[in-house]
Automatic annotation (TrEMBL), chain A:
Pfam families: DUF742
Organism of origin: Nocardiopsis flavescens
Lineage, broadest ranks: Bacteria, Bacillati, Actinomycetota, Actinomycetes, Streptosporangiales
Domain of life: Bacteria
InterPro entries, per the entry: DUF742
Protein name from the UniProt record: DUF742 domain-containing protein
UniProtKB/TrEMBL annotation, chain B:
Keyword flag GTP-binding: yes
Family: Belongs to the GPN-loop GTPase family.
Keyword terms: GTP-binding, Hydrolase, Nucleotide-binding
PANTHER family hit by this protein: ATP/GTP-BINDING PROTEIN-RELATED, GLIDING MOTILITY PROTEIN MGLA
GO molecular function terms attached to this record: GTP binding; hydrolase activity
InterPro entries tied to this protein: Gliding_Motility_GTPase (IPR052705), Gpn (IPR004130), P-loop_NTPase (IPR027417)
Protein name: Signal recognition particle receptor subunit beta, a GTPase
Amino acid sequence: MIPHGHAGDPDLIRPYALTGGRTRPSRSDLTLTTSVVAVAGVVDEDPEALEIHALCARPVTVAEVASRSGLPLGVVRVLLADLVDRGHVLTRTPERRRDRPDEATLRAVLARVKEL
Amino acid sequence: MDGPGVFGPAPDTLKIVVAGGFGAGKTTLVSALSEVEALHTEEEMTIAGTGVDHLEGVEGKTTTTVALDFGRITLDPTTVVYLFGTPGQRRFSHMWEELVEGALGAVVLADTRRLTDCFDVIDFFEARRVPFVVAVNCFDGHRSHRAEDVRVALDVADPVPVLLCDARDRDSVKEVVVELVELVLRLELSGA
């Protein structure tokens, strides 16, 4: 919401009007590289949430959704979390645990990078 | 939460953080290996800190946006590398916490004209035990600096690789990434 008489750049404040003023997502598992994918079906949401849902038609990361929507990361996180809570979007996690990859993976990565 | 099996697991994502001062060549480095996308993040500004009065009524703080560049490199169908660029000065440290979470390691891209821009982020990586290499961007074309001089100036320990690079050159950037992965491999093998 833009305060009456606000003299600055309205873009500084407007994004969070899209989230009802919320700046924290309802869940904390949406990291930059968390993969998300939309569940097909009728989605009755605001236009921004619909756009985010559409951007997840194929598996993408949170970073890519934010980049392609043009919305700030924080806003995208709040809206994505809502979509996940309502069952419209699923998060997917890699099979690997979250710490450092093992030796075999690192050697494979090294070989692939050299081939780039 | 995992989705149903029909979607299968997500590819293994390896994250590399590219940190450096403004104009050090982070975007150029990322674009040497992949398409670059820009992400807008919010940086909190407190009214007390900015000394402006026209934001009255915005509950004491507002945000300004900072663009974060990133690139995606698909190594094979099951492995994807993300390179995230971030400014290296302390006031951007709120981003670093998230960027280093689960990261493979980092590249500190140094501009020899402004080495001090790297100090904060090097301190941070050292404190958080994030493996990193220092890449000295010689974008003026001639390699007028010696890697060892930069190592001394930045006061980084011996195990940290310091190498010269040209952020515009794909092969040169590949060398930087290879150097980082080899460092991580050495750490893995030594049980560090």
